[in-house]
Every structure is written in structure tokens, then in C-alpha cells.
Amino acid sequence: MIAVSDLALGFGERSLFKDVNLKFTMGNCYGIIGANGAGKTTFLRILSGELSHDKGEISISKGARLATLKQDHFAFENLKVLDAVIVGYDRLFMILLEREAIYAKEDFSEADGLRASELEAEFAELGGWEAESQAALLLSGLGVPESLHSKLMKEVGESLKVRVLLAQALFGNPDILLLDEPTNGLDLDSISWLEEFLIEFPNIIIVVSHDRHFLNAVCTHICDIDFGHIHMYSGNYDFWYRMNQILMQQQKDEKKRREDKIKDLKEFIQRFASNASKSRQATSRKKILDKLDLGDFIPSLRRFPYVGFKPARAIGNNVLKIVGLSLAMDGKRILRDFPLNVNRTDKIAFVGHEHVAKSALFSVLGGESEASAGDLYWGQTVEKAYFPKDSSRLFTSNLSIVEWLGQYTESDDETYIRSFLGRMLFSGDDALKPVKVLSGGERVRCMLSKLMLSGANFLILDEPTNHLDLEAITSLNDGLIDFPGVLLFASHDHEFVNSIADRIVEICPGGVIDRYMRFDDYLADPQVKELRDEYYHGHVIAEI
């Protein structure tokens, strides 16, 4: 068990946490949620002991082993991949090293023999004989090929290092598992494997994630960080969200009822206070008014942006036809003879492992690059807008946010421009910040403002949920469900894909799968599974 008592932490004049009291118990998974900058990662670092706090106490059960998902991807460069997993159980790894060092001695003494015997007993007790096989199973489940298990970490690509470090945290059945964004960099198969692993995990899990499907699948509790306080609720993210919406609406209704009552009371007092025959009644009502304190009602501090895409014109029947499209990058063919017919009601999710091919295709459709071969036939009524995966090149100037967004409209009405920024929570002086200092999440919100301003009826979105908090993701999700135009998008967010798309396109090394169905149905379809096995087995994208 972990008990947090009267925890407080501040940075300068800012109070990040105050009077936090929580208990985390065995067999439960706790999802930590909150707006960007609320302190989710900081809270995990406090629990792990990596960061000290100003006040309060954190008590961990005696002898409990705590494991964390490391964020330094280059900390184990000279270890073999398997050893980088096993090092997650530090006591076992230390025994392993000492044991190997003793057996490597040429002058093996009696004292060495006694020490080796002690180490062998503890090695067996900690599961040392099964360590390599367990580490290999974890790596394989997370999509790290067996051919890499004996290589050094410095020989492994960045995306696979993330998976190795996740396997390191999971290794050895720790009593307490702290995971910060564990699904980042994982494909859908690896995420599904991780969900199943954590569902069966018998100990304490505390996880920060922006993946709603993941939080719904694994969490038994939600801990909401809201302006310094952390409130714990039973249930998964969807349950928390629905309950929160209900409570917020009840709060608004009750506040309105009180405000209406106060308004009536004030009008009564004003009208009748000077009337001698009713002065006693007016005085009585003034006492009631004095007791009504609107401060008793604390409005929700969690802010949800508003995302709504309204096309300036309806889209016609002829939308887009792609014929024989081929793409190459660095001399390698990443897409060949790709065909696609897009219809006027389509919301198409592009899924699968070929992320480079998807981004390159979207870049061509967005008009920012050209294909190696093939043709695009656009309908005359199509007005498109493109959201690239990396938009940093658009945010290098000294322009304020208002000035930046003003570049993308013929209107010179600042109030009109600010209205789109306000929907994405850029109000007042926030809208005057220079764009070159914006965070990743702020850039994405600017891009969404730009898309809303465009009035486009055809949206092309490449990983639009990256860098967004759960509130913004939920609002974007709802906005795209309601969008009446055509949508092509790629996302790692399972819930986002499943709730929006009515058509799934997967670019595989051996071919393309195109199905009119929801994402969950796509994943469960036996014919799709058979095709995926055929298209992925034995193929390399560069050979297409």
C-alpha cells in the first residue's frame, strides 16, 4: 500500500499540490488525469522518491519493490537489450553481476564458494533462472524482435528503446508500478498486449496516460488533479467523465436557480422597500438575500475547449479519386500504386504500422509535397485543410497568436479572430503570446483554431491528438463526430478512431486493406486478420 498524507509542493509562488491525502491499495490500477501542467508527471516523481516535496508524508509498505518507466532513453546504451530489461529488478541484477564476477575468478577461494552459495540461493528465490525467458516474453509482447534481444541498446532504434524500458518497468512483478505515458510509441498490437498484462497484474499500478481506451481498459480508479487538489474516484475514465458532466450540469442548474432567486429577491426589495405596508416583508427577504453566498458554489475548474468545424459550403458527390499513387523517401519506395475513392460521407481512419507512408500520403493530399507517380482527381466543391504531424515550422516567427491566426483569414476583425482562439482557451493576454514560445499542446490548439477558421469541408489530420490533454482530445473527438464534411485522419488513440471513423484503411507492406466498418469491428473481423497476416508476413516496405 501507498499512503499519501497532507502532501504539499510549491514552486516559487505557485502551489502545485496542497493537502493531498490518498491511499493506493493492492490489486487496483489508478489513472492520473489532469490538464497539461497540472503536475501528473511530478506526482509520479514524488511517489517514486525522485523528487522531494515541501510538506506531508508518503508511506510505502515495508519491503515493497517499486518500479518506474524510465524517461532517459539513453541510460543503458552499453547493456544488452535483455540485460536492460533485467536491470529493472535492481537486486536481482546486482546478484547476477556479482555471481558472474565470482565465477570468473581464476583463484576461486573458499570464501568465494560460500558467497557464491549465498548468491545462488537468493538468485533462485528471486526467479533468476527464469529471468531471461521472462524478459524475452515481455520484449516479444511489446513488439521487440527476438533478433534484437542480444544486441546492445545503442544499436536499437529510438522507438524500440521505449519498449525495452517499458519491459524493464514490468519485469519481475514489482509491488508498485509507476507508468508515465506507457502507450507512447506502441503500435495497436503492443497496446492490446500491455492492456491484457496490466489487467492481470495483481499489485498496485499508478499510470499517467492520455489514451482514453487504455484508461478505460485497465483502470479501477481515476485520480483527478485539479488546481492543486487530487480527488480519487472509483471506476474508469468514461465513468469519471460521465459523472463529472452530470455534476457540472447539476452545479450550473443549481447556480442558475440561486441566481434567479437572488434576482427576484433584489427586484422585490427594490420595489417594496419604500412601501411601509410591506417593509417588514422586504426586510425579511433582504436577510435571506444576505445569507445567499454564491461563493458556496465552486464552478468546475476543469476547462473543456470547444471544437466545431463548420464548412463554408457543402461538399458535392465528386470528392477525390486517387489512381496509382507512388511515394518514395530517401531512395526507398514507401507506397506503390495506391488507389482510393473517397465518397462525400466518408470519415476514413488510416491505421497500421506504416507511419511514414501515412504521413507522406497526407502531405501529398495536403498539397505540401508531390508524389513520385500517380494522379489525384479532386471534386470542384472540395475545400481542404491539412493538419501535419509536425507543425513546428509554422511557429518560428515573433508574431502573437492573434497575428499568426490572422494570416489565415481575409478578415481584419480582431474580435472575430479571437473568437476562434477563445474556443481553444486562448483568451485575454494569452492570445498575445509570441507563437515561437508555445508548447506542443498550445501549437496543436492553434492549428485547430486555424482549421475551424478555414471553413473547409475536407479535413486531413495527421495525429491531431498528439500533445493534447484529455479535455482537448474529448472536445476534438466530439467535434469530428459532428463534422458534416469528409475526414481523412491517422491516430494512435483507439477510442478516437473507433468513435469517429466509419471506414478503415490500413497500408501494409504487402498490400492495402480497405473496409467500411468501425475500428473495433475491423480488429475482430477474421477475414481482416487473415489479410493482415498475409500482408505483413515476410514483407519489407522498401521492397514493394
Give a quick account of the main beta sheet: strands, pairing sense, barrel closure: 6 strands, mixed
CATH topology heading of the largest domain: Rossmann fold
What is the percentage of strand-forming residues? 15-25%
What is the count of structural domains? 3
Number of helices: 18
Could you name the ranges where pLDDT drops below 50 across 5 or more consecutive residues?
294-300, 540-544
- Write out the strand line-up for the largest beta sheet, numbering strands in chain order: 5-6-7-3-8-9
DSSP summary, beta strand count: 18
- The Cα radius of gyration reads 28 Å
The first-to-last residue Cα distance is 53 Å
> Could you say which structural class the secondary elements and strand pairing correspond to?
alpha/beta
Share of helix among residues? 25-40%
3D structure, described in words:
This protein is an alpha/beta fold and 544 residues long. It folds into 3 domains: 2-240, Rossmann fold (3-Layer(aba) Sandwich); 241-296; 320-543, P-loop containing nucleotide triphosphate hydrolases (Rossmann fold, 3-Layer(aba) Sandwich), CATH 3.40.50. It is 40% helix and 21% strand. The chain contains 18 helices and 18 strands. The chain has helices at residues 40-48, 81-86, 90-103, 110-125, 131-141, 158-170, 188-200, 212-218, 237-272, 279-291, 355-365, 401-406, 414-423, 440-454, 470-482, 494-500, 519-524, 526-536; strands at 2-11, 14-24, 29-33, 55-60, 66-68, 176-180, 204-208, 221-226, 229-234, 320-329, 332-342, 347-351, 373-378, 384-387, 458-462, 486-490, 503-508, 511-515. Strands 5-6-7-3-8-9 form a 6-stranded mixed beta sheet, with helices on both faces. Strands 14-15-16-12-17-18 form a 6-stranded mixed beta sheet, sandwiched between helices. A hairpin with a 2-residue loop joins strand 17 (503-508) and strand 18. Helix 3 runs antiparallel to helix 4 (110-125) and helix 9 packs antiparallel against helix 10 (279-291). The radius of gyration is 28 Å and the shape is globular. Residues 294-300 and 540-544 have low confidence and may be disordered.
